[in-house]
Amino acid sequence: MTNDGGTETSSVVVSLSMKILHLPAFAAVFVALSAFPLVAQHSLPGLSVTPLRPAPGGIVRVALESAGDSVLTVTGDMAGEALHFRRSTQSLWRAIGPMPVDATTATVRAFTEYSSGRVDTSLVSITPPVRAPSTSRPRRLAVSSRFTRPLDSATQARIDRENELAREIGRRAHDTPPLWSASFLRPRPSAVTSRFGSGRMFNGTVTSRHLGVDFSGGVGATVRAANRGVVALADTFFLAGSVVYLDHGGGVVTGYFHLSRTLVSPGDTVERGQQIGLVGATGRVTGPHLHWSARYGALTVNPVDLLSLGAYYYGAQRER
Ligand SMILES: [Zn+2]
């Protein structure tokens, strides 16, 4: 099969035959196309993913273009998470998707269903950039003992519970319709003091990685909702301290950690830019700051990628 340009930013791979080998449900479509290739005037949908080589934890933008037949629905998935396509124009559907932090590859699948009953399957496989082996890999990190001391089993169990709770909030966000109709905002205007993904490696294994973005701020400084959403949780976690999780719908959740004060309650609908809490130093921190995190479904993603989504991804014409 020819590679369609193979650019770094976008590529289109439409595969029926490959997929059908694994999905008997589509065998009928495959047979029909194979038996009557000359009468298949139907043009297959084009699926593109940007960027094609996202960083681990990156959010990709997915576009599906389908000319011709009337499309009833477009569904899909990526890395085990549902994609929520929105119709941008008569023939263009868009969604965002999550590149897992740990995966070496991920497949975006889109299922286009037509009024005729036909279903087309489109696939794009993406891979994060290959990381050159670090020449400055630390042999032994000088980490404070409070970060390396083994946790007692009760504390570890609590952390596991809290992590599972956060994942569950992400999963539930798939069932909430997208609540935002404008771009995402930074929760603080201040400097980023630690980026997403910075980490340490021991024996070739990442043992500690920063899965959020830190913003500077003194105790009591304002923390704002990055977008409209519903407060899914306001609680105290062992590592994250006082936390607020916002369910923005469409699978997207943002989290705000280490707060000194929470100004919202579970179930509240908060507006984009609304003050939801105050910067603090609760939980396991070395000083006051805001740690901002995001999930797409159960997967942790880089919240900064939310800031650059175009208007297509928060279309105003959707129904609620
Ligand atoms: Zn942080």
Number of domains: 2
Name given to the CATH homologous superfamily of the largest domain: Glucose Permease (Domain IIA)
CATH architecture of the largest domain: Distorted Sandwich
Average pLDDT over all residues: 82
Helix content: 10-25%
Model regions low in confidence, pLDDT < 50 over at least 5 residues: 1-40, 133-144, 316-320
Overall 3D form: elongated
What is the CATH topology of the largest domain?
Glucose Permease (Domain IIA)
Kindly list the characteristics that best describe this protein:
single chain, 320 residues, mainly beta, Immunoglobulin-like, Glucose Permease (Domain IIA), 2 domains, eight-stranded antiparallel β-sheet, four-stranded antiparallel β-sheet, 5 helices, 21 strands, 13% helix, 35% strand, disordered N terminus, disordered C terminus, binds zinc ion
How is this structure best described in words?
This protein is mostly beta strands. It folds into two domains: 17-126, Macroglobulin (MG2) domain (Immunoglobulin-like); 152-314, Glucose Permease (Domain IIA) (Distorted Sandwich). It has helices spanning 17-20, 27-35, 145-148, 153-172, 304-307; strands at residues 46-50, 59-65, 71-78, 81-83, 86-87, 92-98, 106-114, 119-126, 192-194, 199-202, 205-209, 213-215, 222-224, 229-237, 241-249, 252-259, 261-262, 269-270, 275-278, 290-296, 299-301.
